[in-house]
Specification:
With 341 residues, this protein is an alpha/beta fold. It folds into two domains: 9-181, Rossmann fold; 204-340, Rossmann fold. The protein contains 14 helices and 13 strands. It has helices at 3-6, 18-24, 30-38, 58-63, 75-87, 98-104, 106-114, 143-148, 161-170, 221-232, 251-261, 276-286, 310-316, 321-332; strands at residues 44-48, 68-70, 91-97, 121-125, 154-156, 178-181, 204-207, 212-216, 238-242, 245-247, 263-271, 293-299, 339-340. The strands form two sheets. Strands 2-1-3-4-6-5-10 form a seven-stranded mixed beta sheet, with helices on both faces. A six-stranded mixed beta sheet has the order 7-9-8-11-12-13, sandwiched between helices. Helix 3 packs parallel to helix 9 (161-170), helix 5 (75-87) runs parallel beside helix 7 and helix 10 crosses helix 14 (321-332).
Length: 341
């Protein structure tokens, strides 16, 4: 086993029992936000597949029990039921683990939601490797590629509680299906708690620097900001971009940043194929941007994810601040091997 994996990391108090996990899930705000919205919007209904405590949709059930539906461990059926509800003018929000929703339900999402363009919102929580010790069957490291390939699908990856709130509130009336790729509810704060601004399809610049731009989303945004601070200590000025919307992607915004600094490091809790890095590469090619060094940091393309506490896995895959900073330095080294767009 690699030394990096055996190295000491901060204790993950919520890694081993669900009772502790529930108590620490302060960023799992979807149920609370949807309950607030439903107070004034009778169209909103919520469905889940026996995971109301894990995704906190129980907070919605407590206030709107007649508009909450537990479909049990039948996730594909849940998506199809949500589609039927949408045909009657409702705004269904269907929530379960991202590994189940984005992979197991891919056919129903494509055929029942995306093809007819129905306004169903998919709350894919515990995305990436955040269910670390549950194993590869519960890791969602490929589904982003599936979702961004579906015509008419909007794909949003919030990074914390505030951005999740803002994303949910700002998209209630958006046409078509939306795939929200959400963490496990213990993401550190990036945005101010009162933040309300969320623009679908636009990169959010969190920090500006001339030497390197780190493009991240979801759980990787916070360590990207920490990595930028580490790089400053070495004289490297670094931009950090929150690419919260993977589809529609802000290709123009990315190309502008790429032309200005010449070095992009894409960090994602996903396979390096098909996800955010691929969206960035597509944007550079379509935009005719030459001479930009593009680095990809995510889950290896030719492996399945390991099993262990999430904090250990993030360290192992270099998705922590130290790992990101190290990759940033390597990208700026002309002799290093990397992708060039």
């Amino acid at each position: 086993m690699p030394d990096r994996f055996r190295a000491p990391v901060p204790a993950d108090q919520a890694s081993w029992d669900m009772a502790t996990s529930e108590g620490l899930s302060r960023a799992a705000v979807s149920g609370e936000v949807l309950a607030d919205l439903a107070d004034d919007d009778p169209r909103i209904v919520v469905l889940t597949g026996d995971l109301k405590y894990s995704n906190r949709t129980v907070d919605f059930e407590k206030r709107h029990p007649g508009r909450f539906y537990n479909l049990g461990i039948a996730e594909q059926n849940m998506v199809s039921v949500a589609a039927g509800m949408a045909t009657f003018g409702l705004r269904p929000y269907a929530a379960t683990f991202a590994s189940f929703l984005g992979l197991l339900c891919a056919e129903q999402i494509r055929t029942d939601l995306a093809y007819p363009g129905l306004p169903v919102r998919l709350l894919a929580h515990h995305a990436g490797i955040s269910l670390g010790f549950y194993g590869t069957s519960h890791h969602a490291t490929e589904e982003l590629g599936l979702m961004r390939a579906m015509a008419g699908m909007t794909v949003i990856c919030p990074c914390d509680a505030a951005s999740t709130r803002a994303a949910l509130r700002s998209t209630v009336d958006r046409d078509g299906p939306i795939y929200f790729r959400i963490g496990r509810g213990r993401e550190p704060d990036v945005y101010d708690a009162a933040a309300e601004t969320f623009e679908v399809g636009k990169l959010a610049e969190l920090r500006r620097g001339a030497d390197l731009a780190i493009v991240a989303n979801g759980i990787t945004v916070a360590p990207a900001l920490e990595a930028a601070e580490l790089l400053v200590a070495d004289g490297i000025e670094c931009s950090v971009l929150d690419a919260h919307t993977v589809r529609p992607f802000d290709a123009d915004g990315l190309c502008e940043v790429a032309r200005s600094c010449g070095h992009l490091l894409v960090v994602e809790e996903h396979n390096v194929y098909g996800g955010l890095a691929s969206a960035c590469a597509d944007a550079l090619v379509d935009g005719g941007v030459d001479g930009v060094r593009l680095g990809r940091l995510g889950l290896p393309a030719d492996e399945y994810s390991l099993i262990g506490p999430p904090t250990h896995l993030y360290r192992h895959y270099e998705l922590d601040a130290q790992g990101i900073a190290g990759r940033g330095k390597a990208l700026l080294d002309p002799s290093s091997a990397t992708s060039r767009a």
